[in-house]
Design goal:
Cofactor: Mg(2+); K(+)
Largest sheet: 11 strands, mixed
CATH class of the largest domain: Alpha Beta
Helix content: 40-55%
Protein name: Bifunctional NAD(P)H-hydrate repair enzyme
Structural class: alpha/beta
CATH architecture of the largest domain: 3-Layer(aba) Sandwich
Shape: elongated
EC number: 4.2.1.136, 5.1.99.6
Number of strands: 18
Bound molecules: ligand NAX, potassium ion
Keywords: ATP-binding, Isomerase, Lyase, Metal-binding, Multifunctional enzyme, NAD, NADP, Nucleotide-binding, Potassium
Strand content: 15-25%
Pfam family, one: Carb_kinase
Oligomer: single chain
Length: 499
């Protein structure tokens, strides 16, 4: 579940070799894993291996030799002259005694399977010229495509397509996935990604200390909140969700209901007077409390059982929301700032960041979508094309001292301490009005249960995606909270919690 950057993967390889391994043996196992995957993907028909000049191509040669030995009809097309290959790739190429075709799109012919071994972790610039024409031909071929390590053209760290990238049916990577397998558009280019064990001992991770994780239950299970048998509702915390004015109360109610479903012991909607009746009429298990001004809010928050606040959904942009957020941040409680609360600080982000930094025990979570991110972190968003979503989230977390969650189909959560998670379970139909309000409420619910901010946000992101996936197309935001009990039930089973 750890994700390794390209340099961390190089380090893992080096540590495995230092620890008595052999780099060519790693390449052999990588090539054999590719050959095994090829057999499953295309049990019959011709195979063409498109090889580059680096070790990715080396893996391709090993796979070609292995598949030929299994009786498959295989040809290799190589980007350079074989005598210019060096190191392990040169050694792998020597094991190949089958046909070597010219590096032209015509050489592809009409195979059942193309093995893409052109570029892997070593891709370091835009793809142009002959490799570009070859990638375009692979994509137009109609054949199944098995990518070795990464679809050629996809940057392993950022998931960006560097000019052009192979559209793979399946990708086989080695030891651990890389961020580029999960971040968009890389994930789409990968097709289905599988990880092969090539004999790198997991203990190398003790030296590397990876800080990027696939957002899956196995990673956060140690922080998943399970109420104890002798528990009290106050033991599960009390979340407060700030409501906007009369015409904008729905978002806060969505968030409040989600906070309760996510497990908060109690949830209160803090409502301005004009919206009190509409909020009260529409809520049952969620409580309502009149809060007009930041002074009222501060007085209310003197009750230290109120341990998590959600401010932003439908809150309105401007001074009132800013004051409410700063009030929430002035004490030892967890705070989720979303939507309008983020935009309210667009002209004065430093005021927000200073307030978070001075918050005792700082457990703040900011949940921008790309537009809100650009308003709050203008300097990072301006360098948009230079920085990946993962890097932007990390830098924003450092700058704001908060956990920063950048939404999308590849939601990234980053902690000021450098850790980050990437989720890939959100279905396309989760992009629907109000889904973000539900997410901020779920994070509030997790925080109320005293889950640390980074894990609270990551757990909520995964459960939110999972709820949407289970409900299926046609989902509206109101449905999400009601699917959560099923998601909880399965997590309890998965974690061996007795129901
Ligand atoms: N390091 C190891 O021990 C292992 C590495 N393995 C394989 O090795 C791969 C990495 O090998 P390399 O570091 O040799 O890198 P690659 O094989 O990905 O590519 C490097 C070569 O491509 C060139 N190149 C990069 N971008 C280009 C572009 N846009 N246009 C044209 N040429 C470009 C570079 O100049 C270099 O010659 C991995 O992806 C994996 O497939 C596996 O064999 C497992 C073990
Ligand atoms: K590749």
């Amino acid at each position: 579940m750890e994700l390794l950057s390209v340099s961390e993967m190089t380090c893992a390889d080096a540590l495995a070799v230092e620890g008595g391994g052999d780099s060519f043996a790693l390449m052999q196992r990588a090539g054999q894993a590719v050959a095994a995957a090829a057999q499953t993907l295309a049990p019959s028909g011709d195979i063409v291996v498109v090889a580059g000049r680096g070790n990715n191509g080396g893996d391709g040669f090993i796979a070609a030799a292995d598949l030929a030995a299994r009786g498959r009809n295989v040809a290799v097309t190589l980007l350079c002259k074989p005598e210019t290959l060096t190191g392990d790739a040169a050694r792998a190429a020597k094991e190949w005694r089958g046909p070597l075709l010219p590096f032209t799109p015509e050489s592809l012919g009409r195979p059942a399977l193309i093995i893409d071994a052109l570029f892997g972790a070593g891709l370091d610039r835009e793809v142009k010229g002959e490799p570009r024409a070859m990638i375009e031909a692979i994509n137009a071929s109609g054949a199944s495509v098995l990518a070795v390590d990464l679809p050629s053209g996809v940057n392993g760290n950022s998931g960006e397509a560097m000019g052009v990238a192979v559209n793979a049916t399946r990708t086989v990577t080695f030891f651990r996935k890389k961020p580029g397998h999960l971040l968009l558009p890389g994930r789409v280019h990968c097709g289905e990604t599988r990880v092969a064990d090539i004999g790198i001992p997991p203990r190398v991770l003790d030296v590397i200390h990876p800080k990027t994780f696939e957002n899956i239950p196995e990673w956060w299970r140690g922080h998943f909140p399970v109420p104890g048998i002798a528990g009290h509702k106050y033991g599960r915390g009390h979340a407060v969700v700030m409501s906007g004015g009369m015409a904008e109360t729905g978002a806060a109610r969505l968030a409040a209901r989600a906070a309760l479903r996510a497990g908060a012991g109690l949830v209160t909607v803090a409502s301005p007077r004009d919206a009190l009746a509409v909020n009260a009429a529409a809520l049952t298990a969620v409580m309502v409390r009149e809060i007009g001004t930041a002074v009222d809010f501060a007085a209310y928050l003197e009750d230290d059982r109120l341990n998590a606040c959600v401010i932003g959904p439908g809150a309105g942009i401007g001074l009132r929301t800013r004051d409410m957020a700063l009030t929430a941040l002035s004490g030892p409680r967890a705070v989720v700032l979303d939507a309008d609360a983020l935009t309210s600080f667009a002209d004065m982000p430093q005021t927000l960041f200073d307030a978070i930094a001075s918050q005792p025990g700082a457990q703040a979570v900011l949940t921008p979508h790309e537009g809100e991110f650009a308003r709050l972190f203008a300097s990072l968003a301006g360098r948009d094309h230079a920085l990946s979503k993962l890097e932007r989230a990390r830098l924003a977390a450092q700058e704001s001292h908060a956990v920063v969650l950048i939404k999308g189909a590849d939601t990234v959560v980053a902690s000021p301490d450098g850790r980050a998670s990437i989720a890939e379970n959100a279905p396309p139909w989760l992009a629907t009005a109000g889904a973000g309000d539900v997410l901020s409420g779920m994070i509030g619910g997790m925080l109320a249960q005293r889950v640390p901010a980074f894990e609270a946000a990551s757990i909520a992101v995964w459960m939110h995606g999972e709820a949407a996936r289970r409900f299926g197309p046609g989902l509206i935001a109101e449905d999400l909270a009601d699917v959560l009990p099923n998601v909880f039930r399965d997590l309890y089973r998965r974690f061996g919690v007795v129901l």
